[in-house]
Backbone:
């Protein structure tokens, strides 16, 4: 009897203590009644101050880099209830539901963040209000990117992942552990940022049991398309889907790589040869285009205009005739022009290439052009030389307004650029946002940044992709590569992508079974003397 | 007032407990093993070989939770930490093995009361002793087995007789064990099946267990695969030791897993077999004499292993001389078998290689040279040669004694970090010391793609600090600050970076910076290879360093060593003027010998007077002149240099000289 009473008493005590603890921990935090003004903004990281944020973004959690024993944060907008957060740690994790509600109520308005820090002597310090503006336009809900280490000449684990920007959910789309540790890269989505039609490229590792190539996905099915031929042995690299038609332009880059003996960046990657070809995903026919496979020039980075009337690309004169020995001497003299070529779908004819902006005029090499979905802007990288801006700290983002003419037509995005490399940008489907990879912060690992552009092309200060753990990036040894905005989640299972990797290539999404050899016969891309470098030696990040 | 322990019954009970928990033979074996592990094996080298990274945070632990068998790997890593202290590691191994043996004996005593189960521990002791003598055997293997046996013991003792309760307990325990200990789970499953089928005689339950096992394994694998595939940033940890495990170790572990259930079967079948044997003997002999097992049959109501059950066990204190002999002889026999096993396993060579790597990494150059003396021929010299040359350089003996040791590669074939952790570590450290920081960085990054380790992270942080990229260094140090071993050092660097972002006051960083190459020499060091790949010239890398900093003594001595090894005496003589930048009291004899050979073979610039002897314009010492004279005498005596007799004579008179290497030694190195 006494033992039973003992047990009941013990259980009751535990329950009461739990309730008290729970109440204490989860009670609504109260902002300090008295505080001392610091007359400055608080030190926080990531930097979420003075920026424009999408109304559908997840909470921007941050760490307060101010010494203190207790922290209070009050987030308030013009409309709606404020959000109060209390923490003994410097990490501020904002509850997601009130945050979403607050942003929804404050579209187009400002929200302020007040930070209070309790000093060891019990006094509270209040910092100046950090202000951000909530845009009226949403950002596409998902971001697809490749995660990999600071790859040098070899790679281990890598994969393509998707992140829901409205919360913190992150899921793999394809990890290389599923296919013999091969390389997966350069995912490209169909026009309108559709998540149901896209392509990726896979390359075999040294011990791989597959050939590699382009994997296209449409209507929930994946197919491997053989784009290589004896005369064009390179793997496809950068791909762009023409809007509303099963036509994709892709580049065939024969890359070289070497290491610098001194300097901040140890690697150098350059195109020994490159051309652009087009694959008709319906018939599986791969064809070259006269203006896109000039043997005297290096053509790369194809990207369609939203109407599909033009294919934009970058082109530079090939400075070396003999590609059997690495062109060391001139690698830093290659500068790419921005060009475009008209295309008529009805007659299936290509026009003459036109120069949009020369490297000579820009003073720098142009790469990775992307046309905004509304067709008004072209966003591209400008770097000192070459076509691998991700390895150059000099690489900055530049915006060209296609409605304008003259000198003011293009300008560097001062608010978005940093002293480190900016590259791999992607437009949202409403043309008001773009995401890009930037190495600011550490100079080695790229992180995804979100930037707002108004309808006149004025950019705001970009902000780092928020994470649930605000100190996540402090220990993240992965680089975010090719972040691409898409309108919804990629729903295909991983095996839909891995199955075609190990199967025979199918040359059309319509599942026509015409032999690929025919397609190769029609290829007129000229890479006769070039041999494919060892796939483990060059991995274009 | 009398305490309970005063009564003889209580005393016997405590003695029974002590004998159950610390059986004398187990204590003797573990004591001998513990001393051997500490003194003979050196647990620090086990740690050195196996340790990669152990972060004391949930993100690191999470990676070990998403695949079957990985939780015990995490436990193994945790238990590896004390090995850094040497004796503490030996103690941990002993404690784990004690748990294993106690669980096994308790399980055996439950399934077969009358058995003496002495034979059951012979094979495991030998196997475990041999396995733990290997620097490549993970503690997680033993830990998993100990957990499985403890669970088996708990299963056969704790739970009631209702079949559904036993089935439920088995399923739950199976799921837990399959997840935590991986393959060792089969030991638990086997022990339970043997118990139910042969001891409890519940055949349907035993057979249903056999169906549960594959179902649980499949279910756990499938479930965890789903969890794993939806996890992000989750790297399934892989074994990546400096020296990888032997293939046979895995089979030895599998044998151990299978051994305990098999032994249980034998124990259960033993009385029946003895009975059968006795009946046969009776029929043949027609009497009762020589009946096997007669002396061991003791009836007892108490289950063995329970406190107070001492009636059928012979206590150590009541043993006769014959028994004591047996107690002494058995461990002795085990030790002999174990020693033979260890000898054949080749762990001594592994120890030698690890010791050299350890001493080199800790800059204990004298110890490196001591260990490198008389290396057995089975050891690949390229894996230790680089440390040896580094030790010779740091002790100032490279231009004097480099041919006192068997020649090997000056710079290991590191494949820019993809040839494993051991070679990556060596190559990275060498490049850092030479001042070729970018090469070191590339090796480190590539090695990181293979496997993340604390040492790589620390070196990457150092490289980034040397290059003045404090933000990138901070990233690596942030990760490393949770490491149990390197954490304090990482935190120290972070604090230093906070106070002095340039780290101008750090001696190690400043030293590397002072030698660091600052002018890109890509055009100079690269050349086209056979295919379109690029070939790097080590010689040109060293020349670049010297061009930029003629005071880089290490680059100079390595360049000269490289030319000596390549028998490029002309090239060596061409670089001799650079020696003036260094404070050699006299020209090192190896360089003098090379100059003489060059003068004889190529330039014919040999001048001998009564007071001086010069070769290629460089004065040659009397000692070197004598050595050259010896060679000349051998040539005359043996009518040429290229015959066996001349080689034998040269080996005795010109041992450890460059002359010998030039004419004969290079063949040996090949």
Residues:
């Amino acid at each position: 009897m006494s033992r039973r009473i003992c047990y009941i008493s013990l259980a009751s005590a535990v329950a009461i203590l739990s309730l008290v603890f729970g109440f204490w921990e989860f009670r609504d935090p109260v902002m300090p009644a008295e505080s001392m003004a610091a007359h400055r903004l608080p030190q926080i990281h990531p930097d979420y101050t003075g920026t424009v944020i999408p109304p559908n973004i997840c909470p921007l959690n941050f760490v307060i880099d101010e010494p203190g024993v207790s922290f209070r944060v009050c987030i308030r907008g013009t409309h709606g209830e404020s959000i109060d957060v209390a923490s003994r740690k410097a990490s501020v994790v904002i509850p997601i539901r009130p945050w979403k509600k607050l942003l929804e109520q404050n579209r187009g308005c400002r929200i302020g963040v007040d930070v209070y820090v309790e000093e060891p002597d019990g006094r509270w310090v209040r910092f100046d209000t950090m202000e951000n503006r909530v845009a009226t336009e949403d950002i596409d809900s998902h971001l697809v990117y490749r995660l990999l280490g600071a790859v040098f000449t070899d790679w281990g684990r890598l994969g393509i992942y998707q992140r829901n920007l409205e919360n913190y959910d992150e899921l793999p789309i394809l990890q290389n552990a599923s296919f013999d540790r091969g390389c997966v890269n350069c995912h490209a989505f169909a026009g309108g940022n559709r998540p149901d039609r896209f392509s990726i490229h896979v390359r075999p590792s040294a011990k791989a049991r597959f050939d590699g190539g382009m994997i296209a996905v449409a209507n929930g099915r994946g197919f491997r398309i053989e784009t290589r031929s004896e005369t064009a042995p390179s793997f496809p690299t950068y791909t762009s889907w023409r809007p509303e038609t099963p036509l994709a332009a892709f580049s065939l880059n024969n890359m070289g790589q070497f290491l610098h003996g001194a300097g901040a960046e140890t690697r150098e990657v350059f195109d020994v040869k490159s051309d652009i070809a087009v694959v008709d995903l319906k018939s599986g026919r791969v064809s070259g285009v006269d203006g896109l496979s000039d043997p005297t020039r290096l053509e790369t980075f194809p990207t369609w205009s939203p109407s599909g009337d033009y294919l934009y690309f970058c082109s530079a004169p090939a400075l070396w005739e003999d590609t059997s020995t690495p062109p060391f001497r001139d690698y830093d003299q290659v500068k790419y022009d921005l060009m475009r070529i008209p295309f008529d779908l009805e007659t299936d004819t290509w026009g003459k290439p036109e120069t949009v902006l020369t490297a000579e005029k820009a003073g720098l090499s142009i790469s990775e052009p992307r046309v905004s979905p509304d067709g008004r802007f072209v966003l591209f990288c400008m770097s000192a030389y070459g076509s691998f801006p991700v390895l150059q700290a000099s690489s900055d983002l530049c915006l060209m307004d296609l409605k304008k003419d003259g000198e003011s037509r293009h300008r560097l995005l001062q608010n978005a650029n940093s002293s480190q490399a900016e590259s791999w940008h992607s437009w949202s489907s409403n043309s008001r946002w773009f995401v890009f990879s930037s190495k600011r912060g550490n100079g080695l690992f790229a992180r995804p940044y979100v930037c707002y552009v108004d309808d006149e092309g004025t950019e705001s200060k970009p902000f780092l992709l928020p994470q649930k753990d605000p100190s996540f990036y402090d220990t993240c040894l992965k680089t975010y590569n090719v972040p691409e905005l898409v309108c919804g989640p990629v729903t295909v299972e991983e095996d839909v992508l891995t199955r075609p990797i190990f199967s025979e290539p199918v040359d059309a999404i319509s599942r026509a079974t015409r032999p690929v050899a025919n397609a190769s016969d029609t290829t007129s891309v000229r890479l006769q003397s070039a041999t494919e470098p060892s796939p483990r030696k060059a991995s274009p990040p | 007032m009398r305490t309970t322990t005063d009564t003889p019954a209580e005393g016997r009970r405590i003695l029974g407990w002590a004998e159950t928990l610390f059986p004398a033979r187990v204590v003797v074996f573990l004591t001998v093993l513990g001393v051997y592990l500490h003194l003979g094996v050196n647990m620090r080298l086990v740690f050195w070989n196996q340790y990669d990274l152990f972060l004391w945070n949930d993100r690191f632990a999470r990676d070990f939770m998403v695949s079957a068998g990985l939780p015990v790997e995490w436990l193994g890593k945790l238990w590896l930490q004390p090995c850094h202290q040497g004796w503490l590691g030996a103690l941990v191994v002993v404690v784990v093995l004690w748990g294993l043996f106690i669980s096994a004996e308790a399980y055996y005593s439950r399934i077969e009361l009358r058995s003496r189960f002495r034979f059951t521990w012979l094979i495991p002791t030998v196997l475990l002793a041999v396995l733990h003598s290997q620097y490549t055997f993970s503690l997680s293997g033993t830990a998993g087995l100990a957990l499985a046996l403890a669970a088996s013991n708990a299963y056969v003792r704790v739970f009631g007789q209702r079949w559904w309760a036993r089935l439920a307990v088995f399923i739950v325990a199976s799921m837990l064990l399959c997840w935590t200990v991986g393959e060792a789970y089969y030991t638990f499953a086997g022990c339970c099946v043997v118990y139910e089928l042969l001891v409890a005689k519940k055949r349907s339950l035993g057979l249903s267990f056999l169906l549960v096992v594959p179902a649980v394994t499949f279910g756990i694998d499938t479930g965890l695969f789903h969890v794993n595939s939806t996890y992000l940033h989750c790297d399934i940890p892989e074994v990546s030791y400096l020296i990888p495990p032997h293939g046979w170790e895995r089979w030895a572990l599998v044998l151990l897993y299978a051994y305990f259930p098999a032994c249980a079967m034998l124990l259960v079948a033993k009385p029946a077999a003895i009975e059968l044997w006795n009946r046969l003997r009776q029929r043949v002999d027609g009497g009762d004499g020589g009946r096997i097992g007669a002396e061991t049959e003791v009836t007892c109501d108490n289950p063995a292993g329970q406190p107070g059950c001492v009636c059928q066990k012979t206590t150590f204190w009541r043993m006769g001389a014959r028994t004591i002999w047996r107690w002494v002889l058995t461990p002795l026999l085990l030790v002999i078998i174990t020693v033979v096993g260890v000898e054949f396993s080749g762990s001594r060579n592994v120890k030698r290689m690890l010791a050299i790597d350890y001493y080199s990494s800790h800059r204990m150059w004298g110890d490196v040279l001591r260990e490198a003396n008389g290396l057995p021929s089975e050891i690949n010299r390229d894996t230790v040669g680089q440390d040896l040359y580094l030790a010779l350089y740091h002790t100032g003996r490279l231009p004097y004694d480099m041919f006192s040791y068997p020649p090997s590669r000056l710079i290991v074939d590191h494949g820019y970090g993809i040839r494993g952790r051991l070679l990556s570590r060596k190559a990275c450290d060498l490049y850092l010391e030479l001042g070729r920081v970018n090469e070191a960085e590339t090796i480190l990054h590539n090695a990181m793609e293979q496997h993340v380790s604390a040492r790589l992270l620390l070196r990457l942080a150092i490289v980034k600090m040397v290059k003045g990229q404090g933000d990138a260094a901070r990233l690596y140090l942030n990760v490393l600050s949770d490491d149990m071993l390197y954490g304090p050092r990482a935190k120290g660097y972070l604090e230093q970076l906070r106070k002095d972002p340039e780290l101008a006051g750090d001696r190690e960083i400043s030293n590397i910076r002072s030698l660091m190459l600052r002018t890109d020499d890509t055009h100079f060091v690269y050349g086209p290879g056979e295919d379109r790949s690029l070939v790097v010239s080590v010689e040109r890398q060293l020349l670049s360093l010297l061009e930029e900093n003629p005071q880089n003594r290490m680059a100079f001595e390595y360049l000269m060593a490289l030319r000596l090894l390549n028998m490029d005496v002309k090239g060596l003589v061409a670089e001799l003027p650079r020696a003036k930048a260094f404070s050699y009291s006299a020209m090192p004899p190896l360089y003098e010998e090379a100059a003489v050979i060059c003068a004889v073979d190529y330039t014919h610039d040999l001048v001998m007077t009564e007071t001086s002897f010069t070769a290629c314009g460089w004065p040659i010492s009397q000692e070197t002149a004598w050595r050259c004279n010896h060679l000349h005498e051998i040539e005359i005596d043996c009518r040429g240099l290229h015959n066996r007799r001349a080689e034998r004579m040269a080996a005795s008179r010109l041992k450890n000289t460059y002359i010998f290497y030039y004419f004969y030694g290079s063949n040996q190195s090949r």
User: Anything to note?
Assistant: Residues 1-5, 288-314 of chain B have pLDDT under 50 and may be disordered. Chain B touches chain A through 50 residues (CB under 8 Å).
